[in-house]
Amino acid sequence: MLLVHADDGRWVARVLRELGAEAVEGVATWDEVRLIHSEMFVKAVAKHEAEVLAAAAVANAALAKGRAVFYVGGTAMAGLHAPRSNQLFNAAVYIAKRSGAAVISIDRHFPTGTWELHLEHGFPLYLVYGGAEGPTRRQLAGRREATAFPLPPGVGDGGFWKIARHVLEQWDGPVVIQLGFDIHREDPTGYLFASETFYHKLGRALAGREFYISIECPSTPRVLRAALEALLSGITGGPPPRADAGWESPEAAREVDRMLKSARRPARR
Predict the structure, then answer these.
(1) For residue 124, what pLDDT is reported?
(2) Above 50 in pLDDT, residue 269?
(3) Residues 218, 221, 223, 226: is their CA dihedral positive or negative?
(4) Residue 36, SS3 per DSSP
(5) Residue 76: φ, ψ to 5°
(6) Overall average pLDDT of the 146-157 stretch
(7) 170, part of any domain
(8) How many domains, the chain?
(9) Choice between 262 and 210, residue whose per-residue pLDDT is larger
(10) Which of 171, 194, 196, 236 could form a Cys-Cys staple with 183, CB 3.0–4.6 A?
(11) Hey, which residues does 60 pair with through a beta bridge?
(12) What are phi and psi of 124, to 5 degrees?
């Protein structure tokens, strides 16, 4: 279920290998990159050919399995015309395009690249992000195919789980989740308070359905390992983590409830 390219030497890939990740060999083709990105994007990343086509190969391997957790260096900032933050291929959107899945972004940051590709390709999109990191809900209200949940500081396990449960109940098809670990309560730069409990519940909710999870913003080795182990335990029916559920601000919890009351399901284009 865990996938990483055999040539990936980053610390996140090493953590995945320690957890038993399968090594993906070989590369894909530029035609697969062009399925979602523009010719301008292809020219911008051409000097990184090995990395780009390796990322596309991992995406193809995930599609072949039908259920996968993978790492390609992040995807959410790779847009229609330009890469950002050293993210060279939006494997999440590629998988959604190939499988007809909805994309769910759960991360402290607003997924600028995924948003740009959504405007071009129109796949159903759910956005869960720190409100200080992106546009307001009103600014995104004109998109029938997207639903946004800009979170206030202080949201913890309860709020994240309510939103994830709502989305997974609304969308019964395959899902691609851009999952950040910077929402964890021990992330050194964050202001959100998810714990291993949320990741376990998310995994349990995904068991039995088609899903693809791209590891985004991995935080620290300790946070990534603990949260990823909880996620995998939930997917495979393992016990919940022993860690206590994280703290959540009462004001933040009320704001999440307010957003859920007015949330709508993204329309299919």
Answers:
(1) 95
(2) no
(3) positive
(4) coil
(5) -65, -20
(6) 95
(7) yes
(8) 1
(9) 210
(10) 194
(11) none
(12) -60, 135
Expressed as residue numbers, the domain containing 170 is 66-262
Instruction: Give the CA distances from residue 42 to residues 25, 30, 51, 61, 128, in Å, rounded to whole numbers and listed in that order.
Output: 22, 8, 13, 21, 28
Of the pLDDT bands very low, low, confident and very high (cuts 50, 70, 90), residue 17 is very high
Q: Tokens 């995930």 map to which residue?
A: 62
In a domain, 33, yes or no: no
Residue 269 lies in a domain: no
Q: Is 144 helix (H, G, I), strand (E, B) or coil?
A: coil
- Assigned token pair, 171: 């969308």
Paired tokens of 178: 């851009």
- What's the CA gap between 95 and 86, in Å, rounded? 20
**CATH number of the domain within which 241 lies:** 3.40.800.20
How many angstroms separate the CA atoms of 103 and 97, rounded? 10
Is pLDDT of 267 > 60?
A: no
Nearest to 131 by CA among 255, 219, 27: 255
Query: What DSSP element (H or E) covers 45?
Result: helix 39-45
The mean predicted confidence, pLDDT, of the chain is 94
Higher pLDDT, 268 or 78: 78
